[in-house]
Amino acid sequence: MNWFQKGTAAAGQKRLLFAKSVLLRSISESPKTATPCRCCSTKLAGVPSSKGSLHAGGNIGTERTKFMIPPNYRHVYREFLPDPKVEWRNAVREKLERKDMLDRRANIDIPEFYVGSVLAVTSSDPHAENKTARFLGVCILREKCGLRARFILRNVIDHQGIEISYDLYDPALQKIQVMRLEKRLDDHLLYLRDALDEFSTFDVNMEPEILPDGLPVPVNDIKVILKPRPWYARWERCDLAGVANIDEHINERRRVKAAAVAKPWEKYDLMKEYRSTIPEEEQRDIFAEIHSQLYSLELMRKKLKRKRTFTKPAKLA
After folding, report:
1. Strands of the sheet with 160-167, listed across from one edge
2. How far apart are CA 277 and CA 78, in angstroms?
3. How far is CA 256 from CA 28, 91, 115, 237, in A?
4. How many CB atoms lie within 10 A of CB 5?
5. Rounded average pLDDT per 10-residue block, the chain, 317 residues
6. In contact, 183 and 218? CB cutoff 8 Å
7. Are the beta carbons of 30 and 38 closer than 8 angstroms?
8. Is there a smaller number of Cβ atoms within 10 Å at the N or the C end of the chain?
9. What distance in Å separates the CA atoms of residue 182 and residue 198, rounded to the nearest whole number?
10. Rounded distance, CA 250 to CA 96, Å?
């Protein structure tokens, strides 16, 4: 080995020692948190970002969205929940229906309402003078789910009880306006068909009663008075909290029959409740899928509500 080769080897050893010292210094001064390394033959491991999602294959954002869902969604958007009967379930059909329902809600404002709320519905009618028809009444029934969801409005006009059934996602509906937002003591108000007309009479020109934001939906605890028999149904066999004089129109024989067919233990039947409802975990999965679209529609509805409630001040002289 000549002098040139010896000098080259010494320089190489100096460079190697310098690189080792730099590497040791960087390791000692680096933070304690591990930094993910990546080479050409491996994929980057899932590391949470500041937005709460994973860089690769993570679902932290979805889990966080599930916990952000308001608990009243299952009451406000009850038609998005599928039918609890197993033989009627179809995951593909339900997903497609939810997409169509969101598309329909993007074209028409479907507000929050319950059984007992007073609504005004404007729909297309080719036989009307202006090709539209408007009906105002109290909601006495909400049933079914998906695109088949429907509700019934009732009003007494000229001493004649009138009921109209609407499909919630019918393309013929042009406007749904809540005139009075409230709840009742029962899940349905079908017994208004046998009640006095004053409990089903509403002014067709009534002004909307706007409920301030942040307040709970009020519960109307009024008890209606039924007319004498015959009735639309055997109301004495139903556990109704909104009827005042149901015992006045039944005799002892009907009372004994009602007691014989009564099932007071059903409210303690956990399996029946499980079979007639959607599990909470599945509800969170469904609402997490549509939460972003529903939230944007809610913001748009609140903006329109503020515009309606704003009163322009009078110009001073």
Report:
1. 160-167, 150-157, 132-143, 118-124, 173-180
2. 11
3. 87, 45, 31, 10
4. 9
5. 56 65 60 45 41 45 65 91 91 95 94 96 93 96 96 96 96 96 96 96 94 90 95 94 93 93 90 88 92 87 67 51
6. yes
7. no
8. C
9. 18
10. 49
